[in-house]
């Protein structure tokens, strides 16, 4: 899973379609969590659906088509399913800002290569319903379980993380962090074998890559950090950071 960090990004506005809902299509508004489902992929791939939510971030992961993240005002009935979804947008657009309530009709698809796909709506028609407050909450790290991070796909959250690695910070703008505390080598805290393997599995569920969402090689700086990383002001493994992202 990648977090698209966004607390200071100037991409809060993006050209998106200010189109009215299509004349023929779904008549019922579904909960985004129903479209997402609890598995690695949506149970409604290929279906035309209608959802409503708040535009929490306009922008895209570097390897995906331009779009926005849409999040329900409230969680759905199934807390194991994400209440946010990515919406791919047309280039022939007008402007939309975050923190507006939008009704979207689109076709459910999975972007990327399995199993690391992202549920999205494509061929989308948008209807702006009015202003809305971004439903951002703190990340409940203690709830990382066998469902992993799938339930938080696209969700606007305030993260408190621990730096795990910075091997690709300078060349890709990516930072490895852990949720719910620092990660230790499995054999540092457990005996080799079954116990160490269990620690390794838990580490994998807590590891997250923070992405600057910029398609640049060797970016001059990492905008999502609160200070420029240098030899005088390094970023060390084990340091704690907090930021907003999806």
Kindly describe this structure.
With about 250 residues, the protein is mostly beta strands. Helices cover about 10% and strands about 35% of the residues. It contains 4 helices and 14 strands. Strands 1, 10, 11, 12, 13 and 14 form a 6-stranded mixed β-sheet that branches.
The residue ranges in which pLDDT falls below 50 over 5 or more consecutive positions are 5-23
Query: What is the ordering of alpha helices and beta strands?
Result: EEEHEEEEEEEEHEHHEE
Number of helices: 4
- What oligomeric state best describes the polypeptide chains here? single chain
| Main sheet makeup | 6 strands, mixed
Q: Could you say which overall geometry the principal axes of the C-alpha atoms support?
A: globular
Describe the structure using short key phrases.
globular; 4 helices; 246 residues; mainly beta; five-stranded mixed barrel
Summarize the structure.
With 246 residues, this protein is mainly beta.
